[in-house]
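Reader question, answered in our methods column.
A reader sent in the components of a multi-part assembly and asked whether the whole thing could be modeled at once rather than chain by chain. We filled in our standard form and ran it. Here is what they sent:
COMPLEX SIZE: two components
ENTRIES:
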Amino acid sequence: MAAGNEVAPAEYIQHHLQNLTFGLHPENGWSFAHNAQQASDMGFWAIHLDTMGWSIAMGFLFIWLFRKVGNAATTGVPGMMQNIVEMTFEFIENLTRSTFHNVNPIIGPLALTLFVWILMMNTLKIIPVDYFPGVFSALGVSHMKIVPTTDLNATFGMALGVFILVLYYNFKIKGAAGFARELSLKPFNHWALIPFNLLLEIVALLVQPFSLAMRLFGNMFAGEVIFILIALLPFWAIWLLDVPWAIFHILIVTLQAFIFTVLSVVYLNAAHERH
Amino acid sequence: MNINMTLIGQTIAFAIFVWFCIKYVWPPISNALHERQKKIADGLDAASRASRDLEVAQEQAEQTLRESKEQASQLLEQANSRSAQIVEDAREQARAEGERMIAGARAAIDQDMQRAREELRAQVSHLAVLGAERVLEGAVDEKAHRKLLDELAAEL
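And here is the structure of the entire assembly that came back:
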């Protein structure tokens, strides 16, 4: 909001950083949270409807788009859209080929889904911070945070999905005993150091989902906060900082989607490899 | 949440950002896309050209094969007729030779017979004269009766 407005900057920022939360409030029962206090009072039993809605919408957009292009694909010279989809596909294919050295048919589709989905969710951030909240407030919806990846719930959800796959393949390929041996006899192959190894390896394992979720969330959230801070400038000065920051985010958005995908593939590759 | 000038400020920023993307971000992407399209088109072109070439080559090969087959059959026919000719000639020659030999033999036989007859004739006339001489005891003059004797020998 422009300087001199009666709405305090802190309130503006807080409003923009709050999700549309529906949950079990201790006093109001199942209801929408109208402010940050109410949202935090709900604790675990709450759901961010905007995060859910936008992420699912982006997921459907991805599926619809790729399916449409896939069905209409020609073996001749590709059109513009098919060309873009093919390039993305080839990019991910090369990526999984070079980082994943085992045989698993789900890795390719998984990497493609992660990359395109995260890229689409991240790209929502390029849209000016007041557009969708403005439209939705006109429709009577109090909060609207459209970038799902600035919500730790979304990034952690994806990271947990990957982590479950990592555990699954560890058990499936190495067996419980093999997995336990790997955790306890690495990096120091000596019986006296088993507790130390265990501590080290379990921490290293558990850090995986955190590193995935936190990196994506941290980058996106920080970028979002800066965008909101820039929006507090006088209206004629906003573009001076907003444009460079948005341009910089073309890089961030792609890079973060790429990093999340690569790390997921790397973790899954490690889960497939016997040591 | 109320609408104010911030929205306009953000819209200005967004417009500049979009302009920037159109001007500087999209062209390289678009170029890459076009390059890829061109590469695919070229590849497809080359493939179709190659298949066309292959077709032509196949046709040529077939043509050559057909020609050489024809030639071979011609040669074979020639050879056949030639060999038939040779056989025919040989047969003809053999027959002629045989005939010649038969004729030769026949001539020789005739000659021998003639000679034998001649001899016989000569001896007969001689014997006849001798016999007559004995019968007539000199009454017959050989010279005077030569003509008669010759006539007699010729009738043999």
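What stands out: Chain B has a mean pLDDT of 88. Chain B has two helices and no strands.
Send us your own complexes using the same form.
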